Amino acid sequence: MSVKLRPVRSADADTIWRIFHQVVAAGDSYVFATATSRADAEQYFLMPGITTFVPEADGEVAGFYKLIPNRRDRGAHVANASFMVDPTSAGRGIGYALGRHCLEQARLRGYLALQFNFVVSTHARAVALWQRLRFAILAAVPRAFRHATLGDVDAFVMYRSLEDLPSPPAMTTFGERASGYSWVPRPSAYAIVSDEGDRIALVSTPRGTFLPGGGIDPGEWAEITAVRETREECALDIRTTWFVGRALDLVVDEEEGQGFEKVSTFVAADIVGRAAVEPQMDHVTIWAASVEDAARRLTRQGHIWAVKEWQRARASWPETTTFER
Ligand SMILES: CC(C)(COP(=O)(O)OP(=O)(O)OC[C@H]1O[C@@H](n2cnc3c(N)ncnc32)[C@H](O)[C@@H]1OP(=O)(O)O)[C@@H](O)C(=O)NCCC(=O)NCCS
After folding, report:
1. Residue 254: what pLDDT?
2. Which of 66, 145, 256, 311 has its Cβ near the most Cβ atoms within 10 Å?
3. Does ligand 1 lie within 6 Å of residue 116's CB atom?
């Protein structure tokens, strides 16, 4: 069957809540109580910065999955994901399509493996699906899940390396490692925020013009950083959508006498609304009319590469994927 996968939109929230509530009410797959509030459900699946995709089957949103790091910082190279398919669409291959898409997206983002921490052992459909996608059961946590009808049952930890999947594109380096400076890595994340007129948000600062974004703080991952920085710099709330790519900018900070290896992750984003914050004093948001206009204004080569890559990738984002069963 053919399933179209796309990033979640704000307008999907009602459907997601309906599916979430139906799935958790069954009490056979997720730890959430039946009475879990919509706010809690949205915090879990729709918080800006969480990567969530939805499948459209016959024009209807029939489920969703989210992809995040399994652990923070030193554990963030292993991914974790959560899936829900509309019970009325179960058994049509949608779970399989989500699983396949999730594996591809995780690999593209540079994760080394995907780990599920809590697969209910008695949920035969889920276990069979993950095994078919080559996940191994690492361990059974005894009686960890209070099943609605079966009592306390085991939960599986399931794991799959991603190293057999096609490698993500190699990272391009911009700039030179000038001598006389010490060089420190600075993982960073930037958003390519486009409005309805396809204009691109840029931030003009005394140091140059950049995409909204900055250094990834401890406990953050790229999408979270992009959301936070865009709020701080542009007073815009965004929802991150597609992963655009990574580039390395070698940047010298003359004031600090320091070289920075800016390993920058670029993500596309939609605007959710204006944020009720004052943008930073010396940061002015400007809107580039086109990719060419943005490229003329941007200071760093990696950012220029990213907006061009964004334009190129937009034409080929695999929104429609046919998964053979
Ligand atoms: C698990 C879930 C995502 C599967 O989605 P789905 O769209 O129904 O899955 P698919 O139609 O792709 O089929 C999954 C596979 O399980 C098989 N299957 C179906 N019912 C089964 C059962 N009772 N026992 C064993 N295998 C079963 C299907 O035949 C299919 O395998 P196949 O492709 O080799 O034929 C969905 O049931 C769901 O959302 N469950 C509730 C939430 C959940 O458990 N999420 C996952 C948490 S780890």
Report:
1. 85
2. 145
3. yes
